[in-house]
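Sample intake sheet
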Amino acid sequence: MSPKPLWGGVIICSHCGTNDPAGWRGLCHACLQAMDQHRTQGDWPVVSHLFTYQSEIRELIVKTKARGGHPEFVGCLGVFLDDPRTRDAALWCDAVAAAPPSFWTRIRGRPHLATELARGVAGRYKKKLVRVVPPVFWRFKKQSMKSSQSRGDEGLTKFRILLPRNFKQRPSLEDSPRPLRVLLIDDVRTTGATLYSIFGAISAAVPEAQVRTLVFAAADGSRARAESST
């Protein structure tokens, strides 16, 4: 079976499979309009997630994670990077970090959506990358098979933080030093426990750092705990 044709985008919509003459970043105009209905309102960082995790947005993310193909990643990355709040968050920070992949994603060597989103921001806005290293068997059991209580326990996970060279040196702004700023990116936020734990690990590695989050999509009820860490 031949691959889908590419030209500055994907001629076949990676979400619904229909022809798309515009070839806009892998998604047709109809799908983009449907996804806009779930776009959150408000400025970053007051609102730290771009979409609610439901309907078309949930379907797009699930397909991207399940297939792991180039067209699906192009669609997600395009929607994420072109949101004005992503630009605002990128211009605020000095470095970008991503919530790490699960045990099985790492073992299989599959692309990881949150990591690709962080790399996209770092590449477009010339930011450094902070690496978040999870325990070896972190998320050995799939999230869909866990209870809400088990997901909440991830806030106790101990992550290691690998900083880029010279990252602890304070940048200057008009000759006045300021705290380093780290933007923590995730694809989906459910309980907020993972982001809360990573926030603590970054704060321990760089005590003077300011850490804020940017999430592609969030489930209802996940906002309070995650955004309290920013």
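Comment: The domain at 29-138+149-227 is CATH 3.40.50 (Rossmann fold). The mean pLDDT is 78.
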